[in-house]
Amino acid sequence: MIIRKIEIENYLCYYDTNTFELSEGLNIILGENGEGKTKFFEAVDWLFTGENRELDMLVSAKKLDETEIGDSFRIRVSMSVEQYNEKSIITKSFLAKKEKANECSTSSFMIEGIEENNSGERNQVDGSVLLDRIFPFQIRKYSMFKGEAELNIFESDSALANLINLFSEAKHYDKYSEKGAFLKEKAEKAVEDSSKLDKKNEALYKKIEGEIFFLKNEKNKYQIHLNSTDEEIRKIEGNLQLAESHVSNADALETLNKRIKKIEERISNQNCSIDENYTTCLFDENWILVNFEPFHKEFAEKVTAHSKRQRELQSDFDKQKGIKEGEKKAKAELLNNAVPLPIGIPSKAHMEEMLNDEICKVCNREAKKGSAPYEFMMKRLKYYLESQVVEEDEQEKDELLFKFDYTNRLENLSISHEDNLKNLRLIRTKIKELFEFNDDRKKDIEELNEQLDKEKAERERILGNSSIVEEKLIDVLKNYNAWQRDLKIRNQEQVDYDAKLKNIETELRVRREEKDKIDTSSANSFLIKTRNILRDIETVFKDTKEKKFDEFIEKLQTKSNNFFKKINIDAFTGTIVFTRRNKINRIIVEVELQEDGRTFYKPNQSLLTSMHISILFAISELASEIKEENFPMIFDAPTSSFGENKTAQFLNLIFETENQKILLIKDFLHTDKTTKNLSIKNEFETVRRNRAFWAKLERPFDPNNLKTINTQVITL
Amino acid sequence: MSRKDEILKSFLNHELLETKYELKKTDLPSTVREALNSDNPIIKAIALIVEGLNGNIPVTDSVLRNQVTQFLNEAL
């Protein structure tokens, strides 16, 4: 069947009558988006399947605008076809009557058929019947496709059944398989009933039946588990394959992110270790005393002088006060009139130490027991110890030269400062060290920041090379590892379920054999023989059906691959594989691309499209073989993922296929940026085709005003 | 060759008929009519089913079952 001509009249953007005189080979209709390509497809689809409803939505706004209120005009889509050298015209149309501005009523919806025989005689026939006869609706289902998504006919579970019903002998074998099972079951039942009449084995028979029932249920259960595990494995393998394209990047990204995190942590630690709280240090760490030593020296000298003066005064006072106290006299003697040291110097502990060691550690000389220095020290100690005993009455009586011992306190302060001088001297070093430490940390941070910038630049590069965003890339790796684990688990499950199923089947066989044995000894022999033959017949029917089914699938696969090799524009070396999968209660076919025996789970869109189109051409060829004729194929934007070069290649390849093809594409058009004028690119000249059209809106037009929209059909 | 003969041929070509029933390919009937006259129970039983399902007068399940079992009970 060849579509010779399509006429579209006042249908949406197709104002007035527009004619497409088609060739029997490749017809290409070019058109920018929104300029009438899809409306062409929809008009043809309306001709094939459109019903008598919402017709006012199909009326050309421009035509309606130009029509006087009360006047009518016809909306029409017509197709002239040629089949077995006979011509037919199928026309679907209705009348639109303008009721008021922008509104119309519709009437006289009809589908007309005209047959013209070899001698030119024309007969009017029912259009629907004629259409179904020359272009059966089952075939049309595999002839018209809108967009790339529709090309995958195996998306639908019923696709296979439809194809088999249309093109395969397998459809005739379905009922045999069903009836074979029915007859066998009845024969089994007859044997069982007969066996049960024999009471001898009643209990054993019942037990075996129960076991068989249980094993059958177990078998079904594990079969379901196995099926779902198989599906799960396929899904995981698909995901892994998709992830694999990113995973090398994801791996690198993860390493980089770890490094970046580590550097950022180090920077943070370095920042924390920098202590620039110098004001606090000034007071808390006594930095303010860094230059205290000269002041202390001056202070100490003053204190010493003051102390000496105080002691001189005290000594004079004591002398004046009297020599009545022996100890004081002795002291005076001992000191040879020198100014005595303050009481408690050297300290009690030092004194005792020196006495024990029999050395005067003040003058660093020996002070053997009994010697004068030893006795001197002993007296000093004794004097000190006695001075510590408070004799209130005496004290009260004593008149003191210095009521408050401030000098002693000053001395102590001086000593304490002296002791602390060592620490104070360290402050300068500490300040220096802290400043150096902080400077070093700042240098480290600078270096780390440089390193961080480099790592970040590397990350940018990786992300720039990747087709997915960073968060997703990280997810990919996370999922990738999880999928790997899942796959391992599922594979193990698959092995376990397989083994379990085999065990069950073995047990089931054993039980059945036991049951058969009882049947043989208990049931009527002719029933057993009948059952055995019907068992074999069921096997024959079932196997033959599957064989026919597989033959069809293989045929489809071979044909699809023949087309695929021709039109495969990605130079993919793999093959299309149809895989039969048993679902619960039905069989489905899944189509896969395989390369070197490995399933190619996520092919790119253009490869997928070329695969789907190959299958469609294969189906079309099957239809041609079964019906002994060719049918046209109409595709609206089937190659939108291809790009212009690939589309050109694709068109050149499908040019060689036998069917009539009508392709609506938006490629090969150029819009001038300044004038906005549309033109056809020179590249289109190299595209092989039998006929080409350009569906183009008449200029000027207002995209917001449908009354100005008119698609012109230019035959190129 | 009519469809029912094609279908019968497909069934009779099953290896089980050769391996278990020792039927030679050359001895197999080529039409349903021939098969219905066969002395071999499995051939005739299959032919009865094909005739019942693809013959001129379609039969119900119970009629088909009666025809087949009755024949087999008598033949075996």
Helix-strand blueprint:
The complex is a heterodimer of chains A (716) and B (76).
Chain A: E1 2-11, E2 14-21, E3 26-30, H1 37-49, H2 61-66, E4 72-83, E5 86-100, E6 103-116, E7 122-126, H3 127-134, H4 137-140, E8 144-146, H5 159-167, H6 174-196, H7 202-273, H8 278-284, H9 292-321, H10 326-334, H11 348-357, E9 359-360, E10 365-366, H12 372-387, H13 392-397, H14 406-465, H15 470-522, H16 525-567, E11 575-583, E12 586-595, E13 598-600, H17 605-627, E14 633-636, H18 644-654, E15 661-665, E16 669-671, E17 678-680, E18 691-697, E19 711-715
Parallel strand pairs in A: 3-15, 3-18, 8-14, 14-15
Antiparallel strand pairs in A: 1-2, 1-4, 4-5, 5-6, 6-7, 9-10, 11-12, 12-13, 16-17, 18-19
Helix pairs in contact in A: 6-15, 6-16, 7-14, 7-15, 9-14, 11-12, 16-17
Chain B: H1 3-12, H2 15-19, H3 32-36, H4 41-54, H5 61-75
Question: How would you characterize this protein structure?
Answer:
The complex is a heterodimer of chains A (716) and B (76). Chain A is α+β, with helices and mostly antiparallel strands and 716 residues long. Chain A is 56% helix and 17% strand. Chain A has helices at 37-49, 61-66, 127-134, 137-140, 159-167, 174-196, 202-273, 278-284, 292-321, 326-334, 348-357, 372-387, 392-397, 406-465, 470-522, 525-567, 605-627, 644-654, and strands at residues 2-11, 14-21, 26-30, 72-83, 86-100, 103-116, 122-126, 144-146, 359-360, 365-366, 575-583, 586-595, 598-600, 633-636, 661-665, 669-671, 678-680, 691-697, 711-715. A six-stranded antiparallel β-sheet of chain A has the order 2-1-4-5-6-7. In chain A, strands 8-14-15-3-18-19 form a six-stranded mixed β-sheet, covered by helices on one side. In chain A, helix 11 (348-357) packs antiparallel against helix 12. Chain A is elongated and about 170 Å long. Chain B is mainly α and 76 residues long. Chain B has one domain (3-75). The mean pLDDT of chain B is 88. The chains are: A alpha+beta (716), B mainly alpha (76). The A-B interface holds A 169, 172-173, 175-176, 179-180, 182-183, 186-187, 190, 526-527, 529-530, 533-534, 536-537, 539-541, 543-544, 547-548 and B 3, 6-7, 10-11, 14, 16-17, 20-21, 41-42, 45-46, 49-50, 53-54, 61, 64-65, 68-69, 72-73, 76.
